[in-house]
Amino acid sequence: MLRQDEDGWSNPKVLTIFALIFVCGLAFGILATCSFFHSKMRNAPAASHQVALDQLRTELRLTPEQEKTISKELDDYAKYYQNIEEEREDVANTGKQNILKVLNDDQKKRFLEIFNFAGPRVPVADSAR
User: Which of 50, 63, 86, 109 is 20 to 30 A (C-alpha) from 128?
Assistant: First the structure.
């Protein structure tokens, strides 16, 4: 029979279970948040440009000349972000192609399944060069 001081919250097993649940929830929350923000940022520059400009125009009472300059800077940022994203995709695609070159057909199929590359971006036939 359990002693009175081992019942309830002070039981090490209960505390361990709660700590494990907390850590798992924290890890899941971090992954979900990162995934959510990454997907939003991928599409954000074009859409957020107008939203940001509207907000700045309203809150700062911009003159037409200021609005023109700020709009140009926001456009430059959107183009820069788009270039970075394209470069990242190119590097990732090159890496996938190099990996696929050294795998046999069964390994290629499994590799694409593991990393969920089943889309048209990385066809298996093209990697056999």
Answer: 86
